[in-house]
Amino acid sequence: MSFDGIFTHAMVNELAPLLVGGRISRINQPYPNELILVIRANRHNYPLLLSAHPTYARLQVTEIPYVNPAKPTKFTMTLRKYLDGALLKQLSQKENDRVVHLTFTSRNELGDLQNISLIIEMMGRHSNLILLQQDTGRILDTVRHVSSDQNRYRLLMPGATYIEPPKQDNVNPFKFDAGDYLKGLPQTADVFKLAKKLQQDFQGLGFDSSVELATRLAQQSNPLTTWQDFFTAIDQTPKPTVTRLNERQQMQFSAIDYQSEKGQKKNYSGLSHMLDQFYRDKVELDRVHQQGSQLIHFVQNELKKDRKKLKKLTQTLKNSEKANDYRIKGEILTTYLNRVERGMTSIELPNYYADERPLKINLSNQISPSQNAQKYFTKYQKLKNAVHYVNDQMTETQQEVDYLSGILAQIEIAAPKDLTDIQEELFQQGYLHRKQQKNKKIKRPKLSKPDQFYASAGTSILVGKNNLQNDRLTLKTARKTDIWLHAKNVPGSHVIIAQSYPSEKTLAEAANLAAYFSKSRLSATVPVDYVQVKRVHKPNGAKPGFVIYEGQHTLFVTPDEALVEKLSKQPN
Prior knowledge:
By secondary structure, the chain is an alpha+beta fold. It has helices at residues 5-19, 74-83, 179-183, 191-201, 207-219, 223-236, 271-291, 293-320, 323-335, 369-413, 419-428, 467-477, 504-516, 561-567, and strands at 23-31, 34-41, 44-51, 58-61, 87-93, 99-107, 113-121, 128-133, 138-142, 241-244, 251-254, 264-267, 346-351, 357-362, 451-454, 460-463, 483-487, 495-497, 526-532, 536-537, 548-549, 553-557.
């Protein structure tokens, strides 16, 4: 299901009883298109996510932790000015459209009560968040400014009068007596044709919802009862369901169980909880790619240059294999120098290194015979000297390729909060350079903490998500008797079991985390080494995250996302 009008209807029904009457305690904008309002209601804090993301626009209570920028945006400051401490008076959907109005009561600078609306429009690439002075209809600010050049129908800028999105001549299905309509529906076995008609006639039906309704109408003998049951279930008894459609992991979510969607189904306790699980990895990956695009581009370019350099060094090393040929020709020329005359361009001489077989030697007619011999000795010496240098350069370049490949692997498994650490590491290693303002000290960002998980037995398991975290976790935080784990021979996280003698089950669970947070996440079987922390060492001068160890044992596990999710929650 897309986040269409009927899903919005169900979500508003879930959120309104929880939040209406609550008071805003915090306002943050962790990402450009997303807002978090922490609403205190019934002695509980509810982080309400309002997302105007072009792909993942939605409204929900979320339990996913967010990292806020060091400096709040202008939109955030405007929201705090008008809504800090405001009381949520009403949360309502506009007809059956993907538009929700949150109406707040707050006090202005003079202490008088004022009504402020925060409107979320969830319309794909046109999604927006609009802060509105309700009495005057004046826009105070929007998360995305839309000028008259971009949209001739309405202006979404501070100071402009708010105009609602264009209305369509569709009917709200929740406020419609469908009896006569259903009698006039054409009798057809083509479910998709019927679904298209339903989508054209009624407001807020996504295509998947239209197909589900059309499928039910086609299968049941009493269309009116089927119609009423469908919308009553969404309105009063939603059953949040995620359906895994195929082996390629394509999934759909819906407010109730959609019979038209075949596959493995999983039910959730609430719509918000379902969306957290559904969007967790998708949105995190999108945010990482969005925020880390410059970082990814830089690392990929550095890798490209290093691989090109490695290719040239390999060719140079291959050419150095001819060094002995040059030495032999120089020696033979020196031996038979009396046969060589100035002006010759080549000569055949007996090769005493190969049973006196004739050896053709090219000569320069511009220099003397002895200079030709010396020229071959010079080439030999140059290539001989190059071998040692090229081998050193190849080792160094290969280490850099491995290091940067590891950085890319870490970005793939990173959460947005980890990107700052990765960027800081590249600053420390000299790959990136800080722009220092005159007379101002560079303030280094605080290193984020490793992720914490809990084994079934309750044991704490810590997972470093980047090299700086890994170094601090393994070399400073962990006790010498704790157990250290790492996916074998691939870039990945350092994992610490905060226990000296964990059970086999705890070891297996920690190994699963090490496999999941590694470059081998999608592999069927991943070898994971484990050893006591005291047997893990960092060589002098080694890059961040690189360690050596001895006396390890190896477990073989299959990365399991469901297990990782389970281990992220502290057992009761």
